[in-house]
Amino acid sequence: MGYFVWIIVFVSVCIFSDFRERKIYLWWCAVNALGGICVNVVLRGHTFWDMVSGAAIGCLLVLTGILTREKIGIGDGVVILTIGLIAGGVTGFSIMIWSFAVCSLFSVAAVAMSKMKWNHSVPFTPYILIGSIITLCLQKL
């Protein structure tokens, strides 16, 4: 439960900066990633390989952002990478999948209602927050 409160606070700050300045602060992600590593080493909340797999998911998103010339933002990949280091690979992957699913549903609905066009970009961090909340609720069941 503590990991999810941490993730929700972390992503909320990222949302604020994403909406305000259209960027994610790398220093904020680095501080939280280092904190996640330290907490997991001291409390042994996750295995080393769980943290590596969580970071790998984020690294793949960062690489996708680079290869697509930021059609998927690099900052979004860094946020997922940080979440993977805080909460582990399975949770990070679950948050990412739910985030993509919710973003897709909202985007298709907005296009269908003529509120935006197919090539319109949307900030992804709010969907990461929604994905985090969905993952929290599902893990509580």
Describe the structure.
By secondary structure, the chain is mainly α. Helix 1 packs antiparallel against helix 6 (125-140), helix 2 runs parallel beside helix 4 (74-87) and helix 3 (48-67) packs antiparallel against helix 4. Helices cover 79% and strands 0% of the residues.
Topology of this structure?
Layout: H1 2-21, H2 26-43, H3 48-67, H4 74-87, H5 89-112, H6 125-140
Helix pairs in contact: 1-4, 1-6, 2-4, 3-4, 3-5, 4-5, 5-6
Structural key phrases:
141 residues; globular; mainly alpha
Number of strands: 0
In angstroms, what is the radius of gyration?
A: 15 Å
Percent of residues in helices: over 70%
Q: Would you tell me the overall average pLDDT?
A: 91
Can you summarize the main beta sheet? Answer: none
Any idea what the shape is? globular
Head-to-tail CA distance between termini: 13 Å
As a percent range, the share of strand residues is: under 5%
Q: What structural category arises from helix and sheet content?
A: mainly alpha
Q: List SSEs in N-to-C order.
A: HHHHHH
pLDDT under 50 segments (min length 5)?
none
* Number of H- or I-type helical stretches: 6
Can you summarize this structure?
The protein is mainly α and 141 residues long. The protein has helices at 2-21, 26-43, 48-67, 74-87, 89-112, 125-140.
